[in-house]
Automatic annotation (TrEMBL):
<dbReference type="GO" id="GO:0030151">
    <property type="term" value="F:molybdenum ion binding"/>
</dbReference>
<dbReference type="InterPro" id="IPR005302">
    <property type="entry name" value="MoCF_Sase_C"/>
</dbReference>
<dbReference type="GO" id="GO:0030170">
    <property type="term" value="F:pyridoxal phosphate binding"/>
</dbReference>
<dbReference type="Pfam" id="PF03473">
    <property type="entry name" value="MOSC"/>
</dbReference>
<protein>
    <submittedName>
        <fullName>Mitochondrial amidoxime-reducing component 1</fullName>
    </submittedName>
</protein>
<dbReference type="InterPro" id="IPR011037">
    <property type="entry name" value="Pyrv_Knase-like_insert_dom_sf"/>
</dbReference>
<feature type="domain" description="MOSC">
    <location>
        <begin position="106"/>
        <end position="259"/>
    </location>
</feature>
<dbReference type="Pfam" id="PF03476">
    <property type="entry name" value="MOSC_N"/>
</dbReference>
<dbReference type="InterPro" id="IPR005303">
    <property type="entry name" value="MOCOS_middle"/>
</dbReference>
<dbReference type="GO" id="GO:0003824">
    <property type="term" value="F:catalytic activity"/>
</dbReference>
Length: 260
């Protein structure tokens, strides 16, 4: 996998380059529409075409290669304007039918650029720069979590979770629980990253990615709040947000080197 300033990349696909919006261009996510997690993508061998599948819906094809030449539309992430192209009326109907059970209301948009375009939103994190904001990411284009951190959390939960619930780009095996909090520099394969901020968590982590159902007990958020709060943050921390400083290739099983 190639890791670039915009995020992980395979062929034409990069991390978080698709976004569901309302018809006015404001983004939505699984915080308010948990059913979004039930939409499953699959790809052709060249990563030039994506197929979306969802329960009770016919599969639909997204012609990724064609989306770079579509006229731009207005879209916003956290109130910040972003460059985007609209995927099609057909895909808008498909998304609206599945999520809203309506013919209209939502659209699917695509980020066509190879560079970040948004300014830093969380200015209290001095290491975070505009080059780290990625495509349509909340904070940065890379997030890392250790396997031991998930295991530590699971020892405190009645119902265990997986790393997938936290949506990391990298899961590191070997270090102790939450050691990643103290890493400043990280080298994986050919790439080098800066730890720019802790990953403070929202309610998406309470939604089971396999079922799209939110935890009645508000877990694992409830438990994380008992031991993973950090000064100046309103929600608990799990993992770290990284900015890439040297682009390159990363492979499954690569050694991870860290600096403190």
């Amino acid at each position: 996998m190639d890791c670039t300033i915009i995020g992980p990349k395979l062929g034409l696909l990069r991390d978080r380059i698709f976004m569901v919006t309302r018809t006015d261009g404001t983004y939505i996510c699984a915080r308010t529409f948990p059913k979004l997690l039930l939409i499953q993508p699959s790809f052709d061998e060249q990563y030039e075409q994506m197929t979306l599948s969802a329960p009770g819906m016919p599969d639909i094809i997204v012609p990724v290669a064609d989306l770079f030449s579509v006229d731009p539309v207005k879209a916003w992430v956290w109130g910040q304007p972003v460059t985007a192209t609209d995927c099609s009326e057909e895909l808008a109907r498909w998304i609206s039918r599945f999520v809203l059970k309506e013919e209209t209301g939502l659209r699917l948009v695509f980020y066509p650029l190879d560079i970040p375009t948004r300014p830093v939103r969380e200015r209290q994190h001095v290491k975070l720069t505009a080059r780290d904001t990625g495509a349509l990411h909340n904070s940065t284009s890379f997030m890392l979590l250790t396997e031991a951190s998930v295991e530590d959390l699971n020892r405190r939960l009645q119902k265990p979770v997986t790393a997938q619930q936290f949506r990391p780009n990298f899961v590191v095996k070997g270090p102790g629980a939450f050691e990643e909090d103290d890493w400043k520099w990280i080298k994986i394969g050919e790439t080098v990253y800066r730890n720019v901020k802790p990953c403070n968590r929202c309610s998406v982590i309470t939604v089971d990615p396999k079922t799209g159902v939110r935890s009645i007990e508000n877990e694992p958020m409830k438990t994380l709040k008992t031991f993973r709060m950090k000064p100046g943050l309103e929600t608990p921390v799990m993992g770290m947000q990284m900015g890439i400083r040297t682009e390159g290739t990363v492979r499954l099983g690569d050694a991870v080197y860290v600096g403190y």
